Amino acid sequence: MVSKYKHMRLNHIGIIVQNIEEYKRLFNAVGLNETTCTATDPIQKVTGLFIDVGFENNVHLEILEPVDDTSPVVNFLKKKGGGLHHLCFEVDNIEEKIEEMKKKGFKIISPPVECAAYDENFKRACANHTKIAFFMISDRMLIEFIEKGK
């Protein structure tokens, strides 16, 4: 099925965990063995890796653990015990998408920042790093937008 939203596609599903290696082993046990190496994002204060779920459209599971108690995901981990954290959609132009979302009344949680860890995970050499931004679209749904570095 071809999406009518050519400018946007599901990139990954973010999952927050206490121990990244434990979840890597669990996903390996069910047959999901293709993973990136772990990389740390100093801005988001998380360590993460991506697990290939085997579909041709390159959608991944992103497994994240906090680097320390100052990580923005620590409260989520304390309140919920971990689990589904966000859906990430790839866009061509993150600034345009942010303006569109603001006009529609959605609240930006994290303005665009560079995410060199994404580029490191996928061994992408980019003159301009990948950028990410987060929006809250309901009281329980966090959406990330990603513009891959070029």
Structure description:
The chain has 150 residues and is an alpha+beta fold. It has a single domain (8-147), classed as 2,3-Dihydroxybiphenyl 1,2-Dioxygenase, domain 1. The protein is built from 4 helices and 8 strands, in the order E-H-E-E-E-H-E-H-E-H-E-E. It has an 8-stranded mixed β-sheet with strand order 2-3-4-1-5-8-7-6. It is globular. It starts with 7 loop residues before the first strand and ends with a strand. The mean pLDDT is 90.
SSE topology:
Layout: E1 8-16, H1 20-29, E2 39-41, E3 46-52, E4 60-66, H2 74-80, E5 83-91, H3 94-103, E6 107-114, H4 116-121, E7 131-136, E8 142-147
Task: Give me a quick take on this structure.
This protein is of the alpha+beta class and 150 residues long. The chain contains 4 helices and 8 strands.
Total of domains? 1
Could you say what the CATH topology is called? Answer: 2,3-Dihydroxybiphenyl 1,2-Dioxygenase, domain 1
Oligomeric status: single chain
Report low-confidence residues grouped into runs of 5 or more: none
End-to-end Cα distance, whole Å, is: 27 Å
Q: In percent, how much strand structure appears in the residues? A: 35-45%
The averaged pLDDT comes out at 90
The largest sheet, given as strand count, sense and whether it forms a barrel, is:
8 strands, mixed
CATH superfamily, please?
Answer: 2,3-Dihydroxybiphenyl 1,2-Dioxygenase, domain 1
The top level CATH class name: Alpha Beta
- What is the H/E string? EHEEEHEHEHEE
Count of helices?
A: 4
Main structural class:
alpha+beta
Percent in helix: 10-25%
Please state the CA-atom Rg, rounded to the nearest Å. Answer: 15 Å
Q: Strand order within the widest sheet?
A: 2-3-4-1-5-8-7-6
